[in-house]
Amino acid sequence: MLEAEPAHLLDLAADVAREAGQLAARGQAGIGVLDTKSSPTDVVTEMDRSVEELIRKRLLNARPGDSVLGEEGGTESGSSGVRWIVDPIDGTVNYLYGRDEWAVSIAAESEGEVVAGVVAVPSRDETYTATLGGGAFCSGTPLRARDAVPLEMALVCTGFGYSTERRAYQAEVLRTVLPRVRDIRRGGSAAVDLCSVAHGRADAYYERGLNTWDWSAASLIVREAGVRVGGLRGAPATPDLIIAAVPGLFEELHDLLEPLGADTDGPPHAG
Ligand code: IPD
Ligand code: CA
Ligand code: CA
Ligand code: CA
């Protein structure tokens, strides 16, 4: 039986994420679109696939019997109780345009709970890591989020889905949020956005419509940095809506988003 200690899983994930990040960084120049998925703007490059392949190979070589869920390759089942959740390139559109904000994200789930997470950001040479109950770090330095600020002083990150219908309503929500906060950032990588909150480079983050691989690693990192992560009305974060902010600010942002129906694709019904 292979070791399933969070620290052990983290070491493996960090090594693999760094190697994967180097491969992606070398392949970024001149990259083009290989395929599209849910819409013409939901693109995949050759590197999304090769990087995920490398990650799967390395993880399963080291730990045969584990399961893997990856954005590009789907599910591979094993029986060890450990499942790896992989986003090979989070921020593919940034990657395609030669921009810096993209990351390799790997989370390790043990018996259904995320116990270790790594987000490697090759353009900044930064690797975010966390284990459950063990704190969050950026390249070895402990992370603590910023103290709570009033909502109107908060720098808030968000992102948008790939479907035009969903985006139309996300723009409506944003129209109400923007005049109520310091400013908005749309970085283009959910994992980097969440790590920015963990790092004190932003105050809060919200997004509707993420997939498990976008936020599994980063939500552990941000929680371990003292940030509250959740959905609406006390529910846990779900693909419907994830909100991340330190206590105090979390409630203010929640109360702004809740009546807008920010967890839906249309205005809430009256009455
Ligand atoms: C996307 C990014 C983006 C977020 C989208 C995600 P991908 O992931 O995280 O910031 O707004 O919802 O789908 O496709 O670049 O891995
Ligand atoms: Ca993603
Ligand atoms: Ca991706
Ligand atoms: Ca994608």
From TrEMBL:
Binding site for Mg(2+) 1: E71, D87, I89, D214
Domain of life: Bacteria
SUPFAM superfamilies from the UniProt entry: Carbohydrate phosphatase
Top-level EC class as recorded in UniProt: hydrolase
Gene Ontology BP annotations: inositol metabolic process; signal transduction
Binding site for Mg(2+) 2: D90
Catalytic reaction equation(s): L-histidinol phosphate + H2O = L-histidinol + phosphate; a myo-inositol phosphate + H2O = myo-inositol + phosphate
PANTHER family (UniProt xref): INOSITOL MONOPHOSPHATASE (PTHR20854), INOSITOL-1-MONOPHOSPHATASE-RELATED (PTHR20854:SF4)
Protein's UniProt name: Inositol-1-monophosphatase
Source organism per UniProt: Lipingzhangella halophila
